[in-house]
Design goal:
Largest sheet: 2 strands, parallel
Number of helices: 8
Distance between the termini: 36 Å
Strand order of the largest sheet: 1-4
Helix content: 40-55%
Structural class: mainly alpha
Radius of gyration: 17 Å
Mean pLDDT: 76
Number of strands: 4
Shape: globular
Length: 187
């Protein structure tokens, strides 16, 4: 028997979720991919007590040469690059399902740098509660709200620098993008 790669993708998500002990894994994909791939996941959406869910996101121009030049021009540290590419750009893509154009990258990087400077030492619980309510309601505007995002960044980097994200996340302290995607999939 040969495993169809389109089905294999769904099985890989389920296997990763089982390894982490998750019961509601979320598979992120673009709208085009959803049209072509989602149908192949139907046989395995419920497996071993888990339910596979989907969250749509826009395209991210990671392979854009302009991104490398942007990092060089602004002398961005490796830690800030990682924060930008692994945390903030996925949040922006989740907010803007049509995708992120390469022309928007400088403004987004500048915005994140400002947020990093405005990040409080200790995130306010009421702001994080407001963020969770927004995510529950499917409101994505918080991704560009400087006040809320500064607290989200502080929550993500508690006990460390904003430019050095934690090595791993635990179920007790998931990253906010994970929370937002979980809430999106839960709806």
């Amino acid at each position: 028997m040969v495993l169809d790669p389109r089905l294999g993708l769904h099985l890989a998500v389920l296997a990763a979720a089982a390894q982490r002990g998750e019961d509601r894994p979320v598979m992120t994909l673009t709208q085009n991919a959803a049209a072509h791939v989602a149908a192949y996941g139907a046989p395995v959406r419920r497996w071993g007590g888990m339910q596979l869910r989907y969250a749509l996101h826009g395209r991210i121009p990671y392979d854009e040469p302009a991104l490398r030049r942007l990092y060089e021009a602004h002398r961005v540290t490796a830690q800030l690059q990682k924060l930008f590419t692994e945390w903030y750009l996925p949040l922006c893509a989740w907010r803007e399902r049509a995708g992120i154009t390469p022309a928007r990258l400088p403004a987004l990087l500048k915005f994140l740098r400002r947020i990093d400077l405005a990040r409080p030492a200790i995130p306010a619980d009421e702001v994080l509660a407001e963020l969770r309510r927004s995510a529950d309601a499917g409101d994505r505007r918080w991704v560009m709200d400087a006040r809320v995002l500064a607290h989200a960044l502080a929550h993500r980097t508690e006990g460390g620098s904003a430019t050095e994200p934690p090595e791993g996340e635990t179920d007790a302290h998931p990253s906010l993008p994970s929370l937002a995607l979980r809430e999106e999939a839960h709806r």
